[in-house]
Amino acid sequence: xxxxxxxxxxxxxxxxxxxxxxxxxxxxxxxxxxxxxxxxxxxxxxxxxxxxxxxxxxxxxxxxxxxxxxxxxxxxxxxxxxxxxxxxxxxxxxxxxxxxxxxxxxxxxxxxxxxxxxxxxxxxxxxxxxxxxxxxxxxxxxxxxxxxxxxxxxxxxxxxxxxxxxxxxxxxxxxxxxxxxxxxxxxxxxxxxxxxxxxxxxxxxxxxxxxxxxxxxxxxxxxxxxxxxxxxxxxxxxxxxxxxxxxxxxxxxxxxxxxxxxxxxxxxxxxxxxxxxxxxxxxxxxxxxxxxxxxxxxxxxxxxxxxxxxxxxxxxxxxxxxxxxxxxxxxxxxxxxxxxxxxxxxxxxxxxxxxxxxxxxxxxxxxxxxxxxxxxxxxxxxxxxxxxxxxxxxxxxxxxxx
Length: 402
Ligand code: PLP
What we know:
Elements: E1 20-22, H1 31-37, H2 47-64, E2 69-74, H3 77-88, E3 94-98, H4 102-113, E4 117-121, H5 131-140, E5 146-152, E6 154-155, E7 160-161, H6 164-174, E8 179-183, E9 202-206, E10 217-222, H7 224-232, H8 242-246, H9 259-275, H10 277-298, E11 305-306, E12 318-322, H11 329-340, E13 342-346, E14 355-359, H12 366-382, H13 391-400
Parallel strand pairs: 1-13, 3-4, 3-5, 5-8, 8-9
Antiparallel strand pairs: 2-10, 6-7, 9-10, 11-12, 12-14, 13-14
The structure holds pyridoxal-5'-phosphate (PLP).
């Protein structure tokens, strides 16, 4: 091959080497968690198992920064979304959804399917919702129809963060008594969630992102106020019913407890607490900044840009990258996966083909991020996408600045 005509096609066959998994969830599962999950079956009433179960329980409360209630489910994040709605609300109630992207709208469409009236505060996805609009919508609700505000702390589809303390402040400014339910599915274990301090009523979390576990376990932290709302909720429910769960020894799981997930969860908690929760957050911030420094550099030559145009909403766990007009984000994903064994997230709903997403959450370090960015930069070149070369060096500069 002529040196002037670089090889553009992926070589035939499967890319080798370790899979670099830069998806925004599920995320990398550390080897020690995989080994821990590979445990023989145990009786979920066994006292030794129950001791570990209780320790895991306490640790999830610590990660959510609450001393209130918690329920766990065998299911993905959707199960916890649904549990939040069906336990606290009744058909015909209204929920207020500050739009952040695809996941906020999906939670809203789940609520609509359950017979709940959904009021959405629309926004420019690249800028994020205006807090004053939340206050205004609640102030306008003089009849008290809005029973809950459902907010997504980290919108995985856009790579944008919604500061939840400011949502709380916007609700307080309206003097409205609605519950505040927060989706922390791609933020729990990656960025700060202060359930009690921010007076959150339901905190929805999942296993497969910051907790580095397989998909299939979900959690809801629940406040005393939300437990009170559950007393009068008339929404049909069975498998997700908090009252039925509370009467069980495990205080969760209507049915068999997923014991192997708990062996994994114990190891996940050990890893998080060994590093230190605040250090885990700092690592996420550091890696996120490096990714953004890289993308900002690429954008220099009419290249791909950060989807988020509001610096106060940038996410520490996922970055969505908007392709230049006329270039397909899926081609980049195909090249990174097929040629370099690097898996990226694709664009969701209206962002399909327009953005690709780099997940920088969970079990990741600097070389893993630099490897991913290097593969993306090569994929941009291979696909003739305009960009300013040298983004990886910009990321390295970010990672080494004092
Ligand atoms: N909310 C957010 C912010 C998410 O990122 C996801 C999944 O990626 C969900 C909800 C849905 O969770 P699951 O796919 O685990 O059901």
